[in-house]
Amino acid sequence: MAEGKIIKALSGFYYVLSDNDITQCRGRGVFRKNKVTPLVGDYVEFQAENDTEGYLLKVFERKNELVRPPIANVDQAILIFSASEPNFSPGLLDRFLVLVESENIEPVICITKIDLLTEKEQSDIENYVRDYKSFGYEVILTSSKTEQGLKELAPFLKDKISVFAGQSGVGKSSLLNALRPELELKTADISAHLGRGKHTTRHVELIEIDGGLVADTPGFSSLEFSELDVENLPNCFPEMVEVSDSCKFRGCLHINEPKCAVKTGVESGTIPSYRYDHYLTFHKEIKERKPRY
After folding, report:
1. Has 27 been labeled as part of a binding site?
2. Is 191 assigned a ligand-binding role in the annotation?
3. Does 139 belong to an annotated binding site?
4. Does the annotation place 114 within a ligand binding site?
């Protein structure tokens, strides 16, 4: 018996990486019976029948799992946003950060194309960067040249399972392709075969890049807070978590409660008002969410 990590799942086969070898495994009937679907990223116990084939015995407990792409035990999300073309969107970034935080995934913010900014725009972006760093987030700035993005990102990938996500049109796929040029074929293949705009379910694969594993499809195709409760929303804003012990009420939602340290922080400017505005928007959206049966 051995342990390893599923790096690809395809047509009922699971490809398990263990000590630099890959074993093609089938799932046992017990998974179906227990309604467990092994996912890419799962740590598993397997029995090898020969050098290349075996079967899964057990899926170990996950620290998180994503629905799209279907992947488990993600360590970090590299959130790619552009400073220009398309313009930087703090509202969208905060939405991604909340989704990532709620799944216990470490976010790394990567802002690209900063070489295309005017002086005024540059100063605006620097203010945002200062804010996000003060909340404890890792922020990387890169130019529109893909090579620079790669050089900045490489050290963050080592020993981690990473998923790329972020604004559309910012070149997530180009970055992935530049990290591993053989991916180029895949994206070209798929669009040629399926035509544009068709919804396609692709298998996910973890690809070894710079000593870490990276999901080969950008993550979070759905940006709705379908799994998040209003009570947990404040935990997804680190600057709120930091001061919430000083709120008068335990479990303060920082909206109508008196003597709320978060609202005091917004008034005094220690918590940026745009972050609080986004918090209120997300809170309303979750409260008005239709119940699912």
Report:
1. no
2. no
3. no
4. yes
Task: Report the distance separating Cα 43 and Cα 32, nearest Å.
Answer: 18
The model carries a pTM of 0.86
SS3 of 190, please?
helix
pLDDT level of residue 176 (50, 70, 90 thresholds): confident
Measure the CA–CA gap between 90 and 135, rounded to whole angstroms. 14
State yes or no: pLDDT of 188 exceeds 50.
no
Which residues are bridge partners to 109 per DSSP? 79, 139
Q: Any known ligand binding at 273?
A: no
Q: Rounded to an integer, what distance in angstroms lies between the CA atom of residue 238 and that of residue 137?
A: 9
Q: Is residue 199 marked as binding?
A: no
Q: Among 8, 4, 15, which Cα is nearest to 204's?
A: 8
Confirm or deny that 166 is annotated as ligand binding: yes
Residue 172 annotated as lining a ligand binding site = yes
Domains annotated for the chain, with CATH where assigned, are 2-61 (2.40.50.140), 71-215 (3.40.50.300), 233-287 (1.10.40.50)
**pLDDT given at position 132:** 98
Average the pLDDT over 187-201 and give the result: 41
As a whole number of Å, the CA-based R_g of the chain is 21
* Residue 216 counted as an annotated binding residue: no
Asked whether residue 226 is marked as a ligand-binding residue, the answer is: no
